[in-house]
Amino acid sequence: MAADAQLLEGVGLWLDESLLTGESLPVAREQPGDLLRAGSLVASGRGWATVVAVGEATELGQIGRSLAEVEPPPTRLQRHTRRLTARLTLLALALCAALALVQGALSGDWSTALLAALALALAVLPNEIPVVLALFLALGALRLARIGVLARWPAAVESLGSATVLAVDKTGTLTENRMAVAQLLTWPTGERWRRGEPLEEPWHGVLELAVLASRHDPVDAMELAIQRLADQELGRSEHLHPDWPLAREYPLQSDLLVYSQLWHDGAGQPHLAAKGAPEAIAQLCHLEPGASDALLAAVAELAGQGLRVLAVARGLDGAPLHPHLNGSGMGPQAGSPPANVHDYMFEPAGLIALADPLRSEVPVAIARAHGAGVRVVMITGDGPQTARAIADQAGLPPGPVLSGADLEALSPRELARQVAQVSVFARVLPQQKLSLVQALQAGGEVVAMGGDGVNDAPALKAADIGVAMGKRGTAVARESADLVLLQDDFSSLVEALALGRRIDANLHRALGYTLAIHLPIAAISLLPLLVPGQPLLLLPLHIALLHLVIDPACTVVFEALPARAGLMQQPPRSPEAPLFGAATWRRALWQGGVFALLALILACWPGLETVERRSLVFAMLLLGGGVLVWLNGEPRNRLTQLGGAIGLGLWLLLQAIPGLPSLLLLMPLGHQATAVLLVVVLVLALLAVASERQTLWRNSEA
Predict the structure, then answer these.
(1) Tens digits of per-residue pLDDT, 570-584?
(2) How far from 584 is each of 421, 509, 528, 695, CA to CA, in Å?
(3) CA dihedral sign of residues 587, 591, 594, 597
(4) Pairwise CA distance, residues 446 & 390, whole Å
(5) β-strand 192-194 against 180-186: which pairing, if any?
(6) pLDDT for residue 221
């Protein structure tokens, strides 16, 4: 429908409102005054209505308008990097101003003083951080695409690593969004068939009647499921009758939820089939109280499994009418078919239980998410009984089910308490999905929200990571989401969580390395400020060349490292955890401090000219930077070893290419200086390795 309308008159009118409400089955709309919403599809019947709203005034339009009002929160990484960059920028500006003033006042050479201040700014400012972040997220998006996940907003890649709650819609996300026959039950014999078992003769009659009581070209999800099973199991049997002419159709009525059809076979004999709500079939068959109770008890047992149950009935042989109508009980062949299906005599034939099947990969994926400390919450528009049954099949923890009506009655404080404990929410309206996501976020959770319908769009946009289904998802849901599952495979979402954790862990390795390598560069650049009269060793040119080691190491080596063992068995990183944790600070400060001390020793080495000391310090920074790459990565990984050799390769080029050192205001090192350099680098490596082993020993003891 293209507009909201108010029903004037309806005949067997059933609407598919899954696009808006998440309800997987059609709902009846027959009472005058019923609201027919834009975005719903007519599954069966017909009706007349008056348009009451169009465009933005419709409920569908209100959802679209709410999308414009929802602002996605900044990611944890964005918050922390902005804070860190702002603080370091202020520190760098203060130090640069101090160095320029001191150097200029002491030497009187203000141009050299400004050059020194510029070099210090390059050394102190972590200008690699924006580059590292951008490339990590871009390469992470590429890796996600390889597992069938499209990242529409790269910043969400980092948020995946710290997700604590995975909130998902049932229909189309955990389930296939396609009804299927799950069980058949003959009546009164009670023989049961389950999906996946061979369909033997006892159940052929039940399925045959269900097809005869369905439209020839069905659009209803349940009739489509019945037709698929019949084509699969009865396609070459005598139980399908495509050549029988239809004599009369009896649509659903508000007071009798039964759909019936009268057919004539090749010999002209009538055959009557009906299907519908079990209580309505019991009424149609005029069952005695005991027989009716037995039938409804079997229905309750199937419904308790989260199945949608239809009953099937057959007209007695010859489709006789009730004797009190004409005194003879003769069938419709004696005259035109009666207008009321209640005029016929029926007997129950069986039950058909249907379900929106759970995706096969869901239980394993949910178990993996739970093992990683990520809580999974199901939010659906389906009823509580169906939602609980699907949750049990999927492996969600047992517990109560909160409905949309329950949520309306809760205060904000009580809602926050409930969402921290309950895992299944049923009969939830679109605006309530948004409230649930916001309540989870208010409790400090990092929420990844999955969905596929228009009704999911506001919640997808408000979540820290919105995830839409690519194939079955609506265009509105995909546009509102940060990630799109191209194959509608729920397990790929959990795989994306694992990849997000790997990216997050490697990003922190790269940032820790960046902090460590900047300490010796900053120490050398601060030397003229700390020791008046000390010449400026590192010029802006040299610091820029050092970035040829730093940047590739961060963006290529660290990004490509495999995930550490047990990463998906650890709890997610706290959303309030600092960008650099205590362990990262200790590791970076120890490595960078030792490196800076050794670099300062070389910078003050006696008996050397300024250009010799500059060459020695620059070579030390190149080789030491490679050592830090090797230590902060995986020492046995070939890529880490190649990354560690970048600095060595650049130094050998400086040594081998004539004229290049003088162009860079350097000079080739002699044998004695080379020996000193190698000894210092070896000391750095040994001290760092000893520190790593001590850290590992402490962790194992803990």
Answers:
(1) 888 776 676 667 777
(2) 33, 8, 29, 12
(3) negative
(4) 24
(5) antiparallel
(6) 79
Task: Give pLDDT tens digits for 504-515.
Answer: 888 888 888 888
Dist. CA 686–CA 613, nearest whole Å: 23
Instruction: Provide the residue type at 584 as one letter.
Output: T
Burial class of 21 by CB neighbour count within 10 A (0 to 12, 13 to 18, 19+): buried
Residues in Cβ contact with 568 at an 8 Å cutoff, skipping those fewer than 6 apart: 368, 371, 372, 497, 498, 501
Q: Could you tell me which residues are beta bridge partners of residue 465?
A: 448
Backbone angles phi, psi at 591, to 5 degrees: -65, -50
Residues 166, 169, 173, 174, Cα dihedral to 10°: 80
**pLDDT average, residue stretch 586-605:** 86
**Distance separating alpha carbons of residues 476 and 465, to the nearest angstrom:** 16
Q: In DSSP terms, which residues pair with 313 in a beta bridge? A: 274, 348
Q: Token pair for residue 364? A: 């394993």
Residue 488 DSSP one-character state: -
Q: Which of 81, 246, 130 is nearest to 579 (CA)?
A: 81
Structure-token match 């007071």, residue found: 255
Both structure tokens of 602: 């070389």
User: Which H or E element spans position 6?
Assistant: strand 4-16
Task: Give 102-160 pLDDT, tens digit per residue.
Answer: 777 777 777 777 877 777 777 777 667 777 778 888 888 899 999 889 888 777 787 78
The yes-or-no verdict on residue 700 having pLDDT over 50 is no
Gap between the Cα atoms of 615 and 465, Å rounded: 49
Question: Nearest Cα to 216, choosing from 230, 203, 205?
Answer: 230
| Residue 203 pLDDT > 90 | yes
Distance CA 545, CA 85 (A): 22
Active site residue ranges: 169
Determine if the peptide bond prior to 73 is cis (ω within 30°): no
Provide the pLDDT for residue 702. 44
The two three-digit tokens of residue 341, written as one number: 């299906």
Separation CA 435–CA 459 (nearest Å)? 8
Give exposure, 360-374, as e/b (b: 16+ Cβ within 10 Å): eebbebbebbeebeb
Distance between CA atoms of residues 316 and 48, nearest Å: 36
Please provide the size of the chain in residues. 702
The SS3 call for residue 29 is: coil
Measured distance CA(173)–CA(488) in Å, rounded: 7
Q: What is the CA radius of gyration of the chain?
A: 36
- Residue 182, both tokens: 């799950």
Amino acid identity of residue 272, one-letter, is L
| List of E strands, 170-279 | 180-186, 192-194, 246-250, 258-264, 270-276
Report yes or no: 131 and 556 within 8 Å, Cβ to Cβ.
no
CA angle (294, 274, 33) in 5-degree steps: 100
CA 11 to chain centre: 41
Instruction: Give the strand pairing for 424-426 and 258-264.
Output: unpaired
List C-alpha distances in Å: 425 to 330, 386, 396.
53, 11, 12
Biggest distance spanned by C-alpha atoms of the chain? 129
Determine the number of helices (DSSP H) and then strands (DSSP E) in the chain: 25, 19
428, with CB counted inside 10 A (0-12, 13-18, 19+), is: buried
DSSP element (H, E) containing 150: strand 149-151
Is 483:497 a contact under the CB 8 Å cutoff? no
For the chain, the straight-line distance linking the first and the last C-alpha, in angstroms and rounded, comes to 63
Helix (H) or strand (E) holding 392: helix 384-394
pLDDT tens-digit map of 243-275: 899 999 888 776 788 999 999 998 889 999 999
